[in-house]
Amino acid sequence: MPIFQASLWTGSITSAPPLRDGQPAWQRKAIKLVGSIWFEGLVIAVIVLNSVAIGVQTYLETGTRLSRTIEVFDVVLVVFFAVELLLRFVAHGLSVRAFVRNPWNVFDFIVVLVAWLPWINSAWTVLRVVRLLRVVRLLRVMPDISVLMEGIRRALGPAFSLGSIIALGTYIYAVVGYVAFADVAPEYFGNIGEGMLTLFELLTLEGWNDTLSDLRAASPWGLIYTIAFVLFGTYVVVNFVVGVIVTSLEDAYEAKRGVSEDDMMVVLQRLEDKIDRLERERDTAIADVTSTEEPATP
Questions:
Q1: Which of 23, 213, 222, 286 has the most crowded Cβ, counting Cβ within 10 A?
Q2: Chain centroid to CA 176
Q3: Contact (CB, 8 A) for 92 and 18
Q4: Cα(22)–Cα(63) distance, integer angstroms
Q5: What is the CATH number of domain 148-275?
Q6: Half-sphere exposure for 16 (CA within 13 Å, toward CB)
């Protein structure tokens, strides 16, 4: 059995394991504590306070009274998250294998561990990033986050194939642009690299009207070339990308439901057919019994 078999989505910010028969009393108490609504609410509130403290500290100068107060508050938060992590470890029966089976537990352990390293306190940028990573835990209480992550995972394969096609098409278009405009507009198509950079800017519609004006003034083919690529990028490429993402999300939602609506309709239709067949067989059997029991006419 693989260690990381749990889903990234647990529906709970504390990832409390379920209660089972045979668990010791101390573990059951830890599970009830970690899985309680008030405890999860407390953890969420502390994470939000941590996020607010990070934002407030960006407005303060180092060494001020309020800045030192926030630093002390951050130490208290580190201790709180360490105790909370220890309680979750106890809730998993002090089993390392059961604890690391959930990737969120591993993530929280790394964040807490890094915050306790001595050299982190002297590296202000690293410390701020570590503190900010705690906010990621709020994703676990957002509805349907697992569906979104699964949709992104499903979209990676088609997106890579689509990206390869787009890159190939852009490269071919850049070669055409180099042949047509290298002499008259070297700032845009002086080489293949410059040409692909120009086409990428056209894909993002960043200053495309300026590029259109310059190419149009440099060559009579500039208008057709630029408009054709802009239409290709804004309508074809963007719609393909959106289609891949939407399709992947729909597949992820259907996978979460277990059975799609079309499959459910097929199952219901089969059930209706079986019910109709059973009713016909019942009516036939009743008719046979009735005809057998009727007395003969003298």
A1: 222
A2: 39
A3: no
A4: 54
A5: 1.10.287.70
A6: 20
CATH of domain 25-142: 1.20.120.350
Tens-place pLDDT, residues 90-132: 998 988 998 888 888 888 888 888 777 765 555 555 666 766 7
Alpha-carbon span 275 to 9, nearest angstrom: 40
d(CA 239, CA 281): 54
Provide the residue count of the chain. 298
Which amino acid, residue 184? Answer: V
Return the domain boundaries, the chain: 25-142, 148-275
Q: Are 9 and 146 in contact (CB under 8 A)?
A: yes
pLDDT in tens, 246-293: 888 777 777 766 655 556 667 777 888 888 888 887 777 777 656 665
Position 117, amino acid: L
